[in-house]
Design brief:
Blueprint (H helix, E strand, L loop, with lengths): L7 H15 L5 H9 L6 H16 L1 H8 L6 H15 L15 H12 L2 H4 L4 H11 L3 H7 L6 E5 L6 H10 L4 E3 L6 E4 L9 H4 L3 E3 L2 H10 L6 E4 L6 H9 L5 E6 L2 H14 L4 E5 L3 H5 L5 E7 L19 H19 L3 E11 L8 H10 L3 E9 L1 H4 L4 E8 L4
Parallel strand pairs: 5-6, 5-8, 6-7, 8-9
Antiparallel strand pairs: 1-3, 1-4, 2-3, 9-11, 10-11
Length: 405
Amino acid sequence: MLTYPLSGSSSELVINVLTMVLTEGKPLDRAYSHNFSGMQYPPAELARITLVTGDILRRLNLYCYLVDIKVEDIERTGSKLLNGWHLFHDLDLPKMEYALQVDSAQFAERLELAKAQPALWDGCPEWLDELGSAQLGEKWPAERAALAKAPKRYIRANSLKGTREELKQRLTKELVATAEVEGVESALEIRSDSALFKTDAFKQGYFEQQDAGSQLVAAAVDAKPGMRVVDACAGAGGKTLHIAAQMQGKGRLLAMDVEQWKLDNLKIRARRAGAHNVETRIIASSKTIKRMKLTADRVLLDVPCSGLGVLKRNPDSKWRDTPERLPVLIELQKDILQSYSRMVKVGGILVYATCSIMPDENRNQVDAFLAANPHFTLLDDELILVAEHGFDGFYLARMERTSEV
């Protein structure tokens, strides 16, 4: 956390980002990109800005409660919110022009009241607290608290270019402090406020920024050199590149998605990583899937989901229309699992994954699929809980096709 207050200009930048996210509906990463474009801030100051913005969004309802403002008024009352945040963390107030002041007596009274409301204290909206309690039961309070904490920074060593130890040594020379992550053999935790993407190690493709939990999902695919592997919901391709490294660049790795711009970004990343066996293909219609029936040794379905396991990293999702979208997402997951599983050949393995921790998106989907598809058998599954591991939350299930039908 900060040891001294934000400057006036940094405070205004935080308010601008919050306004774009909360009133204009912009995703947090795009709001950062828009506001940081052309800025000449030192990396450490940008890190401070993202730290404050992220913490406010992770516990937005708490901070709004403490200073008695409404989320929809953030553009007008953002200075009051920033002042309240600094008071909460026992920091001097930032020097902002025309800042709305906080009544210290009222703040102290509301602070004591908030301490008696665990969900509010953890920055959890009512809909999410009800869902988490219903889905996870006694495990939910610990998860709720863990999701209110700042995420750690992890990278994946690209084994196509070198070992994790070699990467660690390279980054040390570039003044980037790292630590090995127990249980995730490809992961390093970043321990310094370093401009990772400006390092020579990154430019030369020696690593990708990827959460340690996400690395466990890709590792479960267990792709071997020479296999035919499909990452059917590849997105920008973090897991695709991990799989390419597993395959040592040998065999055929097909990255598929419904959005061409994501695949275009993946091509750039693949060239930098030296992942020359990656092919990209847009999913134009169901015919794209049908033509690949019973052809793949491995299929990864990292399906669209609520993202409720990665709220530390994407806290703006708490304040969007996630409750309304959830039933639609669950139906989409069911359709993708049923349709895309046709690509797995007999003896091949299907890996179903989400970045959610809710059973309705995870084991319940798998059980329903297996009940309707007896030619698949569950090998194992894992729920990566945030409180237990400290990583982002994920789910994965590995299923083997035992016959054509």
